[in-house]
Amino acid sequence: MRAIFDTGRSKELFESAKSCLVGGLASSLHKGEYEEYPIYIECGKGSRLYDVDGNEYIDYVGGFGPMILGYCPETIKDAVIGQMSRGSQFAAPYELLNEVSKKLVDIIPCADLVSYQSTGTEANMLGFRLARAYTGKDKIVKFEGHYHGWSDEELVSFGADSLRMMGPRKRPWKTMGSAGQREKALEDIIVLPWNDLEAIEDTIGRRGHEIAAIVTEPVMCNCDPIFPKSGYLKGLRELTEQNDIVLIFDEVITGFRLGLAGAQGYYKVTPDLCSFGKAVAGGFQLAGVAGKSEIMESDVHPVGTFNANPIAIAACGATISELQRPGIYEHMTGLTRRLSEGIREICLRRDIGAYCNSAGSICGFALGVRERMNDYRDTLKVNRIDYQRLRRACLDRGIRLHPTRGRLYLSAAHTNGDVDRTLMVVEEALTKIVKR
Ligand code: PMP
Fold it and tell me: φ, ψ for residue 354 (rounded to 5)?
């Protein structure tokens, strides 16, 4: 196993960033929880990132999800450079926009029409507004622990770290995510536990006449990945259909990762609307909403200077074409499963408690729990300290994992060799770190 890396230049750059960036960072997630400084990246190619000290990492953070084709894929590079030579922003439509939008309508099961925004946060804000305009109702049901963005209405009951903060399971308290968030904005948000159809039925029974939409991550990816119980998404579909409630799948992570048709294709449940982002443009800033025309055509006018920015749309077109190549999902899914099963097997062999799973190109593992997790509260049992130790040990040996949770994104550029090396490093690190 390689020696621990020297990262002195990253340390210097972080010290210098403190004089111009809040906390020295552009995002609090750019640095791991217990780290003194983040790793500064020089460049990326394929499945690898290279830092400013010349160290190489097999990367599983995937830019937080977008890098489904890996770093600097030639096809995206060519499309983006080609578009650059024609112009990067028009404030007017252009032919490629029609072409790419038609592709998305073909691919996304719920899509009669699509509408673009730049970030997942905005896409979900648009989804909420469309649902309210269409139904004439105000309340939005969201689930404990699900993340839909950082606006006042979205950042609710996300990331609590103790049961004391959460209230009764069936009627959770609404917790705010940030200083400066308006408590009043939470008035129209109802929070429920996930994977619990009874809780939904009970709430719809009492308040269905007020509820415009139910929004859900179809696989709960913003913690240690949690999968829907069999029949749960279908049950949500039936209950919303019967009660004039718009069902929104937040596919910002699952879109294009669980398959070309996202979670709605994977689970064969079609929502009324879905938000998408991240992987849709392979590393460029594009997000949006897709859905049924009668809802999409409500009197809502999504504006935004950079909506359908030509560079992002060119990157999206190239990403989708690449993802439509035969065999690409088999490759990603196969590798991801191998990694997940490999980690499970290591943990079993070493008698380390862990819950491992995967879907599409998302691999999840949680240390310290052995049984299936069903909702956010189950993740409070996960051993975060061991995860941080593991992450640190892996980083020091050239494997880059997610800064807070055991969620790994693979790409079309990852190889069997990457997975072999990762499993070797993870096994050695786990054996040293985890108490049984
Ligand atoms: N929804 C989900 C499921 C997400 O994971 C995220 C981002 N992690 C968002 C919405 C918000 O997307 P963005 O960061 O692009 O605003």
Answer: -160, 145
Residue 72 C-alpha from the chain's centroid: 20
Sheet arrangement for strand 113-117: 113-117, 287-291, 273-276, 246-250, 211-216, 139-143, 189-192
- Show the tokens assigned to 391: 């992450």
Each residue's pLDDT expressed in tens, for the chain with a length of 436 residues: 445 789 999 999 999 999 999 999 999 889 887 789 999 999 999 999 999 999 999 999 999 999 999 999 999 999 999 999 999 999 999 999 999 999 999 999 999 999 999 999 999 999 999 999 999 999 999 999 999 999 999 999 998 888 888 989 888 999 889 999 999 999 999 999 999 999 999 999 999 999 999 999 999 998 888 999 999 999 999 999 999 999 999 999 999 999 999 999 999 999 999 999 999 999 999 999 999 999 999 999 989 999 999 999 999 999 999 999 999 999 999 999 999 999 999 999 999 999 999 999 999 999 999 899 999 999 999 999 999 999 999 999 999 999 999 999 999 999 999 999 999 999 999 988 876 5
Q: If you measure from the C-alpha of residue 120 to the centroid of ligand 1, how many angstroms do you get, rounded to a whole number? A: 5
Pocket probe mutation, ligand 1, options 156, 258, 278, 286, max atoms within 8 Å of Cβ: 278
Q: Which atom of ligand 1 is nearest to the CA of 122?
A: 16
Domains defined for the chain, CATH in brackets = 8-72+327-433 (3.90.1150.10), 74-323 (3.40.640.10)
* 8 Å CB contact between 149 and 304: no
Residues 393 and 15: their CA atoms lie apart, in Å, by: 23
Question: How far is ligand 1, taken at its centre, from the CA of residue 149, in Å?
Answer: 5
Residue 296 alpha carbon to ligand 1 centre in Å: 21
* Measured distance CA(213)–CA(248) in Å, rounded: 7
Q: 281 to each of 68, 120, 383, how far by Cα in Å? A: 9, 12, 34
Cα–Cα distances (Å) from 388 to 39, 55, 271, 325, 428, in that order, read 15, 20, 36, 37, 15
User: Measuring from each residue's beta carbon to the nearest atom of ligand 1, which residues come in under 6 Å?
Assistant: 119-121, 124, 147-149, 217, 222, 250, 252-253, 277, 287
- Name the token pair of 25: 């960072």
- CA 222 to ligand 1: nearest atom: 5
Q: Which atom of ligand 1 is nearest to the CA of 120?
A: 12
Q: Provide the residue type at 273 as one letter.
A: L
- Name the closest-CA residue to atom 12, ligand 1: 120
Read off the tokens for 256: 């294009």
